[in-house]
């Protein structure tokens, strides 16, 4: 068949063959008056993709097409859509639908809607499947489709749709700005953006990393200083010094949480956006009573934050550091393997979608 009745995507069949991709014909949800079809030009690899396809976040039934950092061209626009026209360059992140009617949605918390639909490995209320961005096209509600500013390059804009909003939203909701001291734990796909956002927002920003090789990168990304967490007693000079700590590492199950929480000011946040496969270490109530830190977390952000993020990135020069690979079954497998092994500095964007899928008629 082909577009618009079907899309084509690179899929895996299950956790046992998580790095073996092959082309599959995908059936999208019925096109609605509020929907937009995007012919994809670039899609970045996210650790969420890896956690999903390996089964770390639960079992799934394939074939599964992942990818939720998507940039492309709007090729079909529903009659109720305003602000986006056919031909516009747009992005889609890790959410493609919510009810927009519940109290959370009306309070600009649509990213916590109990009926939300994730971009992939999810089902719409009519039973249709949502398919990800390692594909020819993606279909999403207009509320979760964003115009990309001209100043942002396509390959660099893609990671902003998930990694960008995941790190930006908690910072602005915490009031991060001038006069605040922020620590960013884990300088990878998430953390290298968290450093840039915190600095762009005017905070005194520090990187916390176990990798001495990343010190220069951290400084280039806007860190005033770099704290090496492999050094004995690294936390001692920093006890109760940080207003906000953004944890972007997904190995938190291995952390000595008492050490990390000790650097947070009373009522300050140690905020989780890196999500490990395994549970957090056991913690006693006394750990929180002693210094009054808060352990918090978040998921994505709202539409207003995404629009503000894209504007700030365009104006302040915030850019993901990306390595590009032309999309194919082989390169999808290679990309997720390299993601597992932390080989990218600091994001991989798959490109050349026209060569893999051809253009819509």
UniProtKB/TrEMBL annotation:
Pathway: Secondary metabolite biosynthesis. Its cofactor is Zn(2+). Coiled coil: none annotated. Residues 32-150 form the Alcohol dehydrogenase-like N-terminal domain. Residues 189-314 form the Alcohol dehydrogenase-like C-terminal domain. The keyword Zinc applies. GO terms for molecular function: oxidoreductase activity, acting on the CH-OH group of donors, NAD or NADP as acceptor; zinc ion binding. Transmembrane segments: none annotated. It comes from the Eukaryota. InterPro entries: ADH-like_C, ADH-like_N, ADH_Zn_CS, CAD-like, GroES-like_sf, NAD(P)-bd_dom_sf. Gene3D superfamilies: Medium-chain alcohol dehydrogenases, catalytic domain, NAD(P)-binding Rossmann-like Domain. The keyword Ribosomal protein does not apply. Keywords: Metal-binding, Oxidoreductase, Zinc. PANTHER family: ALDEHYDE REDUCTASE (PTHR42683). Belongs to the zinc-containing alcohol dehydrogenase family. This is NADP-dependent alcohol dehydrogenase C. It comes from Cordyceps fumosorosea (strain ARSEF 2679).
């Amino acid at each position: 068949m082909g577009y618009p009745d079907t899309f084509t995507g690179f899929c895996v069949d299950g956790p046992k063959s998580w790095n073996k991709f092959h082309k599959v014909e995908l059936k999208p949800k019925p096109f609605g008056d509020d929907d937009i079809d995007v012919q994809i030009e670039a899609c970045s690899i996210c650790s969420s993709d890896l956690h999903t396809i390996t089964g770390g976040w639960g079992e799934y039934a394939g074939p599964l097409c992942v990818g939720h950092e998507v940039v492309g061209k709007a090729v079909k626009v529903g009659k109720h859509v305003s602000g986006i026209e056919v031909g516009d360059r747009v992005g889609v992140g890790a959410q493609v639908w919510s009810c927009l009617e519940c109290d959370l949605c009306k309070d600009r918390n649509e990213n916590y809607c109990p009926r939300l639909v994730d971009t992939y490995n999810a089902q719409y209320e009519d039973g249709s499947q949502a398919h990800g961005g390692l594909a020819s096209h993606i279909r999403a509600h207009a509320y979760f489709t964003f115009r990309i500013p001209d100043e942002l390059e396509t390959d660099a804009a893609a990671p902003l749709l998930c990694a960008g909003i995941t790190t930006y939203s908690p910072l602005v909701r915490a009031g991060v700005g001038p006069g605040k001291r922020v620590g960013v734990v884990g300088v990878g796909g998430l953390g290298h953006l968290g450093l840039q956002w915190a600095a762009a927002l005017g905070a005194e920003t520090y990187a916390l990393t176990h990798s001495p090789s990343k010190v220069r990168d951290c400084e280039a990304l806007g860190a005033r200083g770099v704290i090496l967490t492999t050094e004995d007693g690294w936390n001692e000079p920093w006890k109760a010094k940080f207003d906000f700590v953004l944890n972007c590492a997904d190995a938190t199950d291995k952390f000595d949480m008492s050490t990390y929480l000790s650097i947070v000011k009373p009522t300050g946040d140690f905020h989780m956006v890196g999500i490990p496969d395994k549970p957090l270490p056991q913690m006693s109530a006394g750990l929180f009573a002693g210094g009054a830190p808060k352990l918090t977390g978040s998921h994505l952000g709202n539409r207003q934050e995404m629009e503000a993020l894209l504007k700030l990135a365009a104006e302040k020069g915030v850019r993901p550091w990306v390595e590009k690979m032309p999309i194919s079954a082989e390169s999808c497998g290679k990309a997720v393997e390299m993601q597992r092994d932390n080989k990218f500095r600091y994001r991989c964007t798959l490109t050349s979608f026209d060569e893999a899928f051809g253009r819509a008629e």
